[in-house]
Amino acid sequence: MKILFLGLGSMGQRHLQNIQKLQKEKKLPDNLEFFGLVRPEDRHRVIREGQEKKVADISEYYGMTPVVSWTEAKKVRPDAVFVTNPSSLHIPSALEFARLGSDLFIEKPLGHTTRGLSELERIVKSKKLITMVGFQTRFNPLVTKIKDLVGSKRGRIISAAFTWNTFLPAHHIYEDYSKGYAARKDLGGGVVLGLIHEIDLVCYLLGLPKKVIAVGGKLSNLHMNVEDTVAALLLYAKKGKTFPVTLRLSYAQTKEVRKFEFQFEDSTLFVDSVGNRYALYGKEGELVEEKTDSTIRNELFEAEVLHLFECVNVRKESNVNIVEARKSLQVAFAIKRQIAKKV
Fold this sequence. Notes:
Elements: E1 2-6, H1 10-24, E2 33-37, E3 45-48, E4 51-54, H2 58-62, E5 65-67, H3 70-75, E6 80-83, H4 90-98, E7 103-106, H5 117-127, E8 131-133, H6 141-151, E9 157-167, H7 191-194, H8 196-206, E10 211-217, E11 229-238, E12 241-250, E13 252-264, E14 268-272, E15 277-281, E16 287-292, H9 297-314, H10 322-340
Parallel strand pairs: 1-2, 1-6, 2-5, 6-7, 7-8, 9-12
Antiparallel strand pairs: 3-4, 9-13, 10-11, 11-12, 13-14, 14-15, 15-16
Helix pairs in contact: 1-9, 4-5, 8-10
Pfam family, one: GFO_IDH_MocA
Organism: Candidatus Wildermuthbacteria bacterium RIFCSPLOWO2_02_FULL_47_9c
GO molecular function: nucleotide binding
């Protein structure tokens, strides 16, 4: 099986490292051939758990065959492609290899526009390709438990609130954040697409909102030319009742906070995504249930890769295919349209 990586920055290398680790653990087959289209700036650095190490040649380090151009990459005729280049290249890259019949793993976000997405969906459907978008949060056992709780008979949802505030310069300490895709509009950056995991989480738990209202923009002194902070109000309707869901995202907060909560008619649920724990309180404010999950973050990426290979092997749809991933993109673009109004 030939696997091509389009880009080997931090995410591309994480996925490659995990595949090779799972091979050693006999959880994935040995007969995988790796090919990589690598940017010049990535050819001599290995990135592991947020740390950079200089190497003579990244291709030798990973036992990977380098390709130096798109023409050469397409000649490989890969069975599967990991689209791990900048967001602005995701859909164009996926289209190129979908036409060749390659299965696709596309790192989040699915794209920075919807241009070409309908054509991609058409090709994928006609060729019966397997697709998956990198929303590893869905593989967190705690999130699975939360989905069960939200869907259980806890009473009507009154409101919900989601927050993910983090500090962009601390994400990749080995490089100048202002030159990375997250800080650049031309590469599909900005906090809305960069932290789209949280939008996907909202859609996974609640579906699509009926209306989106948002404010925000480039509000901090960070060196980026795209929005760094947004606050959105998502309106949902269940059984004839409308309830609000607030969403706050920021790249400008030095102390990371990632949390969400649900207010039900007869209980309240608090979730700390950083600590990977939740607490459920009853009608009288009493603690009904609490849990801390010990899952390590990289285990989510491993679970994601295992699910992808399972789907490829038995030819079944993945849990997060491009049709499913379009939902979070739809909400993200609604937010972006709102903040562009500068109300």
